[in-house]
């Protein structure tokens, strides 16, 4: 969380930094700020969003600067705690994403040495440490300061009298955007798509010095060269494109994300999948690890690997990874992470690596840390996702789970062929669900009047009920909980009644009869039921209060269609309640703190 940017070149830096910061707001939006380097350093900060910061700015001719958008960790949401942070003499400005673990000890020491602090943040110690070590050589001073710091960082530094930017990373993402007569740094390549399509993904321990014409990188005191990579994402992909919210745009991009993720992999020649097949077979155990929505994709994966491959896999929430039985060198660890930067996931992966397990990352962001830790990476092809709530990337992660399971399946060839054919139709089927949008919007407006909701399903759709509940909570602030349908009567029935709507996933698979029974039991307690059913369903019309109909598909593929229906339901419920859909309270898209 927190996003940092930096620019040095020929354009007015203020406009570039503001634009880039807006692209990074998904990383945090408690406060923001920038520092511009001319003859002096001019710093501006504001609580709230980049839009608020714009109001306190005056035009500046500076062509170099750094910026920050904050998700508060150390210190409250105040202007004093907003970045950039300065040294005592306002000569050095620092922006930082990460956590300085030994900041209390460093701060006490610096205070004793006479440094004056103005914030409660951990970041401010970096500015004072650089000040302490600065003798005219900024790179050296940054190097000495970093040697004293324990923790994680992506940071950028400006200093009066030095026309350059110094950037450094350890366990927090940082990308250099390579331009002509200008260079950029950013937490994420999405921030610089308007200016360049070339990037260098910095490695842990790298310290990078940028001027308008040069980029030099050192690691452990030695010069290193890093590859400049083409960037395939485009600026158009991070615009709203006529939609009111990124979330809705990204739900509508679901069919493309699904098609792109399948692309030619359906022929099962995807090299990383094939490689993993060997590892899957050799593995003692398979652990799928992830957080949040990605964890729900992992649960789907657990089900599919058992059902299609007879492989016993377990989905483990990454922050609980330390608590599970010790991983062994013959285990295969599959991490599912859209950003590839989630701290809990990275920690789990590092533990797996130290136990010499095989590791596979299923990731959306090229160059992200997970891709560097893991032996193999399978990229989902969802394109950049801006809305904090994951939608199209979740669809693409589900598709990856199907691909992984299919490539190792023990299904007979005929069943396999039927399933593959049905998968090819998924983009069109999802489009059909999207055509029912206005009806789902009306149903969502009714749901929006309640403060609580249950989501209920059985079998392969249970993770989707969990995802539906998470999505509704996240964007509409309606309290929602998901249950395996059979579990409701073991306690939670106590909450059923006219103020507890229940969304039931009732596809025509082997769970259908039991789900019908659950619906009757729920209705008998007076709770309104909204059932998501196949379009040809005739039996539930009489029982449920309302129906969302999805197209017919192979029984194992209803999770994909149900997901889209529930995403639309959450979106329109949030809209009916007037919520800030793309930027829900207290959240950030990339959770880079443990
Ligand atoms: C919910 C959501 C989060 C993420 C979670 C993991 O809509 O987006 O729950 O799924 O923070 O993020 P990644 O996949 O980047 O590891």
Number of helical regions: 18
Helix content: 25-40%
What ligands are attached or bound here? fructose -6-phosphate
Determine the N-to-C terminus distance.
11 Å
Q: β content, as a range? A: 15-25%
**Gyration radius, in Å:** 25 Å
CATH fold group of the largest domain: Glutamine Phosphoribosylpyrophosphate, subunit 1, domain 1
Strand and helix map with partners:
Layout: E1 3-8, H1 13-23, E2 31-37, E3 41-47, H2 50-54, E4 64-70, E5 85-86, E6 92-100, H3 103-112, H4 124-133, H5 138-148, E7 151-159, E8 162-170, E9 175-178, E10 183-186, E11 198-201, E12 206-210, E13 215-219, E14 222-224, E15 229-230, H6 246-252, H7 254-262, H8 271-282, E16 286-290, H9 292-309, E17 313-317, E18 332-337, H10 343-354, E19 358-363, H11 369-373, E20 376-379, H12 392-406, H13 413-424, H14 426-435, H15 437-447, E21 452-457, H16 462-476, E22 479-484, E23 502-506, H17 512-524, E24 529-534, E25 546-550, H18 558-576
Parallel strand pairs: 16-17, 16-18, 18-19, 19-20, 21-22, 21-23, 23-24, 24-25
Antiparallel strand pairs: 1-4, 1-10, 2-3, 2-4, 5-6, 6-7, 7-8, 8-12, 9-10, 9-11, 11-15, 12-13, 13-14
Helix pairs in contact: 4-5, 7-12, 7-14, 9-12, 9-16, 14-18, 15-18, 16-18
Bound molecules: fructose -6-phosphate.
Fructose -6-phosphate is lined by residues 291-294, 337-339, 342, 345, 389-390, 470, 474, 590-591.
